[in-house]
Amino acid sequence: MKNKKSLFSLTLSAVFVAIIAVMSFTPLGYLKVGLIEITLIAIPVAFGGALLGKWGGLLLGTAFGVSSFVQCFGFSAFGTTLFSISPVKTFIVCMIPRMALGFLSALIFEKMSKKVNASVSGIVSFLSAAVINTVGFVGLLALFFYNTDYIRSIAEQLGSTNVFMFAALFAGVNALVEAAACGVCGAALAPLAKKLKTQLR
Fold first, then answer.
1. What are the φ and ψ backbone dihedral angles of 38, each rounded to 5 degrees?
2. pLDDT tens digits, 2-18
3. What pTM does this model have?
4. C-alpha angle 3-126-184 in degrees, rounded to nearest 5
5. Ranked by mean pLDDT, which of 33-37, 39-43, 80-84 comes out on top?
6. pLDDT tens-digit profile of 49-108?
7. Three-state DSSP class for 31?
8. d(C-alpha 98, C-alpha 108), whole Å
9. Three-state secondary structure call for residue 33
10. How far apart are CA 135 and CA 76, in angstroms?
11. Burial of 11 (0-12, 13-18, 19+ CB in 10 A)
12. CA distance 51 to 94
């Protein structure tokens, strides 16, 4: 039974990594509106984490981060410009928020599902994935790149006068769309995740 569970987890991890890869390089994953990119990849990461646990979530979050960093090699004008300014800082901005969202959203689901019903724990954990992704990405972006000419020019276009206003305006609509999508999917998918986990015990 233990070997069967390990094989299932390995197979499931591979399936979710493949989904993340496909979404990363098709319109399914990124809705691009000007410089703003609304990403829906947090959804399969959060769902996979709910099924596989926090370490599985970390793996999927890492896959998300890697796919995001690969976007900087000509797939995203914004990412490519950041990479030209600082490859190391761009790598950190791409990786850390995504790894954190995978691990923490799975941990939140694991803890909450023991106390409340699956739909509620799903909504909270999937919403947390969206929030962690947005706050982490925009926060690190502002920390590392706000003083660069490129980000300052974007800040001026947005009408921001300081780094905090820039972060709020830059997150803007995409943060609300991502959060809403994650919340709805969390309510729908979390009961399935809990049922599958129960059957594997």
1. -90, 115
2. 566 677 778 888 999 99
3. 0.86
4. 115
5. 80-84
6. 988 889 999 999 999 999 999 989 988 888 999 999 999 999 999 999 999 999 999 999
7. strand
8. 15
9. strand
10. 20
11. exposed
12. 24
